[in-house]
Each structure stands twice: as structure tokens, then as C-alpha cells.
């Protein structure tokens, strides 16, 4: 996942139903990952000010809040978490339990647990491993809808007088998510079992929901993999002859060229854990559908 944009705005409702509130009643909401922030913006409309505190150069699962960030969270009405092991910093700080909302808590039994995680390093964050629980829950659009429902319930508890508007906006959001969900299922269903590669282990929920036959490496779009990893890729393709690699962002052209020589083309499927430079979560997911469709000629 790539760039994040700091945001502190009052967002207009994107559906026909607008939740309105007097200035003093505007909900102060903090969300720790962009998809959840987007859900909050869609559901609340002008009834909430949604704050996304993660800096633009840090991936949400590797973000560690500073003391001012924690102080701001403590003043918020709601702290919306992704859950699924994304916010590993939670145990290091004390936050008001009544304000915390783990948006994936309702489907813990469906969360994916990663075994035999590989430790590696890239970028300024140093070494890390993609172990524990897979956190990109929102790439299963049905689970994303459940997270949106959790957001709506939390907002309704805080502002019961706006329940009708929240529920109307939630319904519109869920309809949008369901449409993308159906498109992804249709695309993946054209060639069941088609071998695919993931440049990074962030597509677990996507693969499970839509039946993708996907195996991942640990590559970064802007870093040429060492020779040992190219050799490992060739060994992997002996039993998994994929001709497409999905990337979180457009890879370095030199990587693309070398993959092409091996018969592997590169397609971007942006997990959108970060706020995109333009558009929003829904527009990125729709672009992902188009990109995935290109892998199923």
C-alpha cells in the first residue's frame, strides 16, 4: 500500500440522503485506515468530521501514533479501527474503551491467520513480517459491507436522532460495494483456477472471496528484487505457471521489463489502504475490476 493523505475535513454526503447536524453536534471521528474513513464519510455526511491521522509516507499497519495523535483520539467521539491485527500499537496506549470500535470484530471467525510468515525489510520502516492476522479485510467486499455496518451502528449510538439518515446512506454504500463485489466475482469466474502472482502478501481476502489461485512474493514496486528472489520466482512458477503479477502500485519499469521477459505481465490492483491521490475507495475498486479483467483475456 502506498501513499496516504492526511485529512481533516467535513465531507458532504455522497448519497441522496444527507445526515445533517448542528455545528455543536458534529461527530468527531478518527479512523485508522482509509477504507474505514471512507465508510464513515459516506454514512455520516456532514454529521461528522472524519480525521485520518496516518502520515502520507506510512502504511497504516506500520503506523505508530505520536502522543499528539493519541491526545486527539482521546478527544474524539469515536475511534474507528480496522481490527484484524492492523493496529498493533493499540496495546501501547490507553484509549477510552467506550469510544473504540473494532469494525471487523463481527467476523473474527472469518479472519485469515498467516502461518510461516517471512521477515523482510524495505523502505524506512526496517524489518517486518506479514505474520499474525491478514488485515486487508476490505478487499472482500462482503466483509467491507459488514465493516460499514459496524460504523453505522456506532454512529447511531452516538446520534440516535440521525439513525434514518445514517441507515439510508449505509444502504447506498452497501449497494455500491455489492455491485463491485458482483463484478469481481464475474471476472474471476471466467477462468477458475487461473494461476496468478501477488507482489506482496496483501491479497488474502481478495483471493478467498473471489476464488483466485494466487501465490505471493515479497516485492516492492520501487525496489529491484535481488537475484535470489528472481530465482525463487522462477522456481515458484514451475508448479504455479502464472502469467500475471498483481501489484499494489505501478512497479519500476525495469522490474516490469524483466518480468515481461519471463512471460509475466504486471497489473495494478491497489488495496487502497491509503487515501488515493484522486478519486476515492469506490473509484479505486472499480479501477481494480478493470485491471483484474485484463488478467482474464
Number of strands: 13
Shape: globular
* Number of spatially distinct domains: 2
**DSSP summary: helix tally:** 8
CATH topology category name of the largest domain: Rossmann fold
CATH superfamily of the largest domain: Nitrogenase molybdenum iron protein domain
Assign the structural class, choosing from mainly alpha, mainly beta, alpha/beta, alpha+beta, or little secondary structure. Answer: alpha/beta
Q: Give the termini separation.
A: 26 Å
Largest sheet: 5 strands, mixed
CATH class of the largest domain: Alpha Beta
Provide the succession of SSEs.
Answer: EEHEHEEEEEEHHEHEHEHEH
Q: Taking all residues together, what is the mean pLDDT?
A: 90
The percentage of residues in β strands lies in 15-25%
Give the neighbour order of strands across the main sheet: 1-3-2-4-5
Poorly predicted regions: 1-16, 119-128
Query: What's the architecture of the largest domain, going by CATH?
Result: 3-Layer(aba) Sandwich
How is this fold's topology laid out?
Layout: E1 7-10, E2 27-31, H1 34-44, E3 48-52, H2 67-75, E4 78-81, E5 100-102, E6 113-114, E7 119-121, E8 127-129, E9 132-133, H3 141-158, H4 163-188, E10 195-198, H5 204-210, E11 213-216, H6 227-239, E12 244-247, H7 253-261, E13 265-268, H8 281-294
Parallel strand pairs: 2-3, 2-4, 4-5, 10-11, 10-12, 12-13
Antiparallel strand pairs: 1-3, 6-9, 7-8
Helix pairs in contact: 1-3, 1-4, 3-4, 4-8
Amino acid at each position: 500500500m502506498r501513499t496516504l493523505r492526511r485529512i481533516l475535513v467535513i465531507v458532504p454526503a455522497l448519497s441522496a440522503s444527507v445526515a445533517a447536524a448542528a455545528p455543536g453536534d458534529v461527530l468527531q471521528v478518527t479512523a485508522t485506515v482509509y477504507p474505514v474513513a471512507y465508510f464513515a464519510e459516506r454514512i455520516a455526511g456532514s454529521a461528522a468530521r472524519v480525521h485520518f491521522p496516518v502520515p502520507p509516507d506510512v502504511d497504516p499497519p506500520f503506523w505508530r501514533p505520536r502522543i499528539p495523535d493519541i491526545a486527539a483520539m482521546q478527544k474524539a467521539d469515536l475511534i474507528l479501527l480496522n481490527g484484524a491485527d492492523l493496529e498493533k500499537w493499540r496495546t501501547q496506549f490507553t484509549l477510552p474503551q467506550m469510544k473504540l470500535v473494532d469494525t471487523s470484530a463481527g467476523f473474527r471467525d472469518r479472519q485469515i491467520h498467516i502461518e510461516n510468515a517471512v521477515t523482510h525489510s524495505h523502505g524506512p520502516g526496517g524489518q517486518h513480517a506479514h505474520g499474525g492476522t491478514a488485515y486487508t479485510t476490505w478487499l472482500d467486499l462482503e466483509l467491507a459491507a459488514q465493516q460499514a455496518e459496524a460504523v453505522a451502528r456506532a454512529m447511531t449510538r452516538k446520534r440516535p436522532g440521525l439513525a434514518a439518515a445514517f441507515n439510508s446512506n449505509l444502504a447506498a454504500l452497501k449497494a455500491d460495494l455489492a455491485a463491485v463485489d458482483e463484478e469481481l466475482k464475474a471476472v474471476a469466474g471466467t477462468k477458475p483456477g487461473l494461476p496468478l502472482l501477488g507482489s506482496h502478501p496483501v491479497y488474502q481476502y481478495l483471493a478467498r472471496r473471489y476464488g483466485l489461485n494466487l501465490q505471493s512474493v515479497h516485492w516492492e514496486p520501487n525496489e529491484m528484487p535481488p537475484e535470489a528472489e528472481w530465482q525463487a520466482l522462477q522456481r515458484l512458477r514451475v508448479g504455479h505457471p502464472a502469467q500475471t503479477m498483481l501489484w499494489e502500485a505501478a512497479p519500476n519499469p525495469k522490474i516490469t521489463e524483466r518480468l515481461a521477459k519471463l512471460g509475466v505481465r504486471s497489473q495494478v490492483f491497489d488495496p487502497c489502504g491509503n487515501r488515493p491521490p484522486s478519486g476515492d475507495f469506490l473509484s479505486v475498486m472499480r479501477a481494480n475490476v478493470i485491471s483484474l479483467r485484463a488478467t482474464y483475456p
